[in-house]
Every structure is written in structure tokens, then in C-alpha cells.
Amino acid sequence: MNSTYQDSLNKYLEQHIGYRPDLVRLHNQYKYTFFDTVTAAGVIEGKNGYLFELNYFKAYYGLDFVGMDTIQKHISQTIAVNEWLQKNKKHLLVVLAPGKASFFPEYITDGYKPNSVLPTNETTYYKLLKENNIPVISGNRLFNSIKDTSRFALYPKCGIHWSYYGMGVVFDTIINTMEQISGHYFVDFGIKNIEVTHRLRSPDRDLWEGLNLFSQPDDDPMPYPEFTFEKKRPDSMPSVIVVADSYYWQWYGSGYASRAFGKHDFWYYNKQIIPGDGGEAIQKHAIDLMTRVLEADFIILLQTDANMSRYSFGFIPELFNAIQKISQWDATALSEIQQTMERIRKSPSYMEMIKEKAEKRKITVEEMLRIDATWVYENKREAALKSQEATKNTP
Length: 395
Fold this sequence. Notes:
With 395 residues, the chain is an alpha/beta fold. The chain folds into 3 domains: 3-35, no CATH class; 43-324, no CATH class; 329-393, no CATH class. It has helices spanning 3-16, 20-35, 54-61, 68-87, 100-103, 121-131, 139-146, 164-182, 206-211, 249-253, 256-260, 289-295, 315-328, 331-345, 348-361, 365-393, and strands spanning 43-45, 51-53, 91-97, 136-138, 187-197, 222-231, 240-244, 264-268, 272-275, 282-283, 298-304. Strand 1 (43-45) and strand 2 (51-53) form a beta hairpin. It is globular.
């Protein structure tokens, strides 16, 4: 029998055996019960049964530090972006969401601590953002300031994300900061009727569920508050772009973003755009960055410390480069792009093509029109530069 065929057959039988899911779970339970070993990739059981992800250990100890050169470059770009946004009456807010290992270092498993003290991405970015007057909130500092006095849990034992109560504490600070930097007071946010229960809600057991075990976790009871939103200016709620990781899912997915903001889009890892109106998600590369940014009142960058090695998930460098490109264009260039847009509007066949492309990308016709007109200008400019270079080199 051909060995390749035999290997394929074995793999097929492994995947399709009727009791395979239960056997896998039984195997996981055996290793967990008798060897205190978890099999989920990247998950570590700390002291007293607290679950963590390895990346959060690395972030807390500075083992993922990207270096001062990279951070200084990002800070310089952030300063330039913030200045440009302010000139256009827009606001930037950087939210460094907390990390579970940074909040619970006492439960970190022995053996992960490095021999020497290392700088961390979170503390370095926070320090430099503050020094350069970029609006920034540190979830780690906020949580640690109330760790000993909070009546309610800020993190679950078997989950990696903040508790609903902890999320409320941070978003109360976010909303207050947005109002302070904009000078507009748009919503009164409140936390009340906090239910503390052993009946945990998603995602408070997300790490435990990933272990795929038969046994139930030894959970601590968790707080579930009711959030209230009293709009002060219902007709002028701020439009918001939130570039964030999974720490934003609870706020967005529970419908709180729709009550706290006006038009709002969730740019998940700066790759996928999830509209706040419940529309279909689209890929980030399909949109015109400048059009979207100029439509928003606030740009919020939100990421946990375990993701700070990927500062803004590339959003700040992308916007910085887009601003640099536009700044190199003179009034003539901008006028030419506008004229091209007008010519396209007057062509029924061209506009039909624009509409089809916009529908395929799931963006507005106006946005697609600007993308095409800009493409025409850039290609025309590049061709002219090549022609000039060729003429210069002709003997």
C-alpha cells in the first residue's frame, strides 16, 4: 500500500472517528487533572488556578520590547498626525487597555521572570505620549490605582479580558476625556444595579472554554452592571473611528457604543471595518483612508499591553504617510483631482462602473469616485515624471 495513501487514510480516520471530540476532551482532561498541564496553545495556568496568555507575561516583563528607535519613530508620527487632526478639528485619543498579567503579577507562574529589569512597550509609549501632550489613558495605571479598594472584580479568573465592571470604569474615563479635549459634553454615563453572580457571561470564561475540558472551572463570582446613557446633545453625538483589538468587543457587541457615540465604526486590528449600524463588515484596504478619517470627530486607538508591540496596528504610520502624500500636492493637484471627479460624474457609463465598484467594495459611491480620481492623478503624475527622466537621460 502506498505510504502517502496510508497517511491520508489515517488522518481521515482520526478526523472522522465518531467519538473524536470526546476523546480529545478526555485527553485534555487527563493531562490537566494528573499533570496540571493545559493543552491550549499560548494559555498558561498561573498560581491559584488563574489563567493567562503567554503574550501578557511577555508584555509585563518587557520580553516583547520593540526598541526605542521604533517607539520614537511612532511617537514622531503620532505627533504629526495629532497636529494634522487638530487643524482639521478632529481629535485623537490613545487608550492603552490593561493587561491581565500586569494587573495580577502575583499569580504569574514562577520561572517567567527575566534576570534583569527590562523596559516595556506600554510604559515607554505612555511616558512619551504624555510628554508630547498626546491624549492618552493607561488602563494599567487606572486599574492598579483602584485594585485594593474596588468592591468589584476588574478581571475574571478564567478569562483574559477585563470584567464588564472594569470595562465600565475605563469607558467612563474615555467619555470624560473625550468631552474634556473636545469641549463638548454629549452624554452622562452611569454605572448602577451591579449584579454579582457565579453565572458568568461571555467572555469571562474565554480562556477556560478554550481548554476544552469536561470539568467546570473554580470561578469567582463576577459583577455585571447596568450602564446608563443620558444624551446631553442627541442631535450632535460624536462620530468615532475605534481602531482596536478584542478588548473593544464587549463595548461594541453589547450595544454600548451605539448609545455612547453617534456614527461609529470598529476597525478590528486595522484590517476589518465593522460598521456601528450593523451593516456588513468590509476589508480595510477597500476604503479611502482620508475620506473616512475626515468624516470622524474622534479617532480612538485602543489596545491591550500584550499588543503594544504592534502599536496602532499600523494605523498611525498609514495615516502619517497619507498626510505626507497630500502635503506634497499643491492646490493645482487637488484641483485636478476634483476636476477629474466632475468629469467622471458627467459620464453615465463611467459612473455606472464606479457604482459597481463601490457596491463590490461595500463603500459609498463618493468614496469610490475619489479613489478612482486620485488613482488617475497619481498615474498621470508618475508617467510625467518618467517622461521627464527619460528626456533628461537622452543624449
